[in-house]
Design a protein that fits this description.
The protein is mostly helical and about 450 residues long. It folds into two domains: about 160 residues, no CATH class; about 260 residues, no CATH class. The protein is about 85% helix and about 0% strand. α3 packs antiparallel against α4, α12 packs antiparallel against α20 and α15 runs parallel beside α21. The chain is globular and about 70 Å long. The chain starts with a helix and ends with a helix.
Length: about 450
Amino acid sequence: MIHTGAMMPNTYGDVSLVFAWFAIFNVVLAYGMETAFFRFFHKEDDKDLVVSTSLISILLSTISFATIAFLFKNTFSSLLEVNPTIGALIIGILALDALTVVPFAWLRAKERPIKYSIVKVVSVAINFGLNIFLLITLPKLANGNSESYWAKIYIENFQPEYVFIANLVASAVALLWICGLYFDNSYRFSKILLKKMLKYALPVMIAGIAFTINEVVDRILLSKLISPENVAKTEIGMYSACYKLAAFMTLFGTAFRLGVEPFFFSHAETENPQKTYAHITTYFVIIGSVIFLGVLVFANPLKELFIRDEAYWEAMKIVPIVLLASFCLGIYHNLSVWYKVTDKTRFGAYISSIGAILTLLINFIFIPKYGYLASAWATLIAYGSMMCLSYYLGRKHYPIPYNMRKIFFYSFIAIGFALISFYGFNRNLIVGSLLLLVFLGLIYKLEGDKLKKIFLKSES
């Protein structure tokens, strides 16, 4: 909303490209250590050794990266096609974020969701607030009085740099808040433990890189396969802005995964955990179906609220596609429990790699003709394939009794209603709202008693 209001699509396209590279570097710098930390924290008796070994590993790797990247800052900046100022900001952000990987994982493993959530929310709020100030408020203050203090510190055409300055400050605050773990530690180190953790983590990293390719490589390929350059950047800007409407599903899926992943590991050795995993996935699909339908029903109001500049609206046709892709990804993360609790993380790498290959092939073949629409379909096909593959392989290696009838029933009705509302009635709000109410009534009719039991139990 802020970026699209302060920048034209081509400039926003430049920023979106950098964030695409961000995602790839973040995965490499974390190298699967977060998931490995969960697994070994619950598996090993000496939990302090797991913490200290993880901290030492991530600290050394981050310092090494930051040192080399700053020494070759110009080369690094050239790789990302940014100026050295933005390059330095990116290195700082990447290093700060990498150093928070283990402390954040420790908070989740220790089941301290309140502090975890507060730090995350405050960090986002700082980033959001600084973006508002630097991109909207500061230019107004500077233009109002050319002799003022604000006019002296304001730099014209500096919007991309301001975006990354805000990000850097937010990342620094998050690290300062949770860096106590680095100081309150014995710093014992075990090579044997680290080797076991890396053996578990590296397939997770490969899966993460493949997943990131699925998520962000389309922006990079759009910049390379569409010409001229200004047209490519404009398409990336429009695509990225409308893609953000899928953030409602992405945020739900991420929050759900962050909350349930420690639960999966802590209950892996209990009696019949598969039945619990199946129930969790069913209710994820039900809630996700409501979000999917709700976002598409209210697509026009959301568009006007979050993408205020009409220059971006041309790409609204991708919203149902990328929203369904995010839904498939969320289901995939739930299904992926089987290879995580059985220490078969190599299958995660295989599945994600297949998704990445599909993403690359579809984008390479169809972007020159169909532009960002090809990228949207590539994302859906990749995540849909990963979801199906994980389910198929999970049935062989760690059978979980998913209620497929319910999963298909709710997801298909939600998709059908969404298509009717979005395409059949051209996003008519009245028709869409009625369909949403019918769907909610159906859920209440069929699941009301079970939902009441769950919430009443949680309250007691």
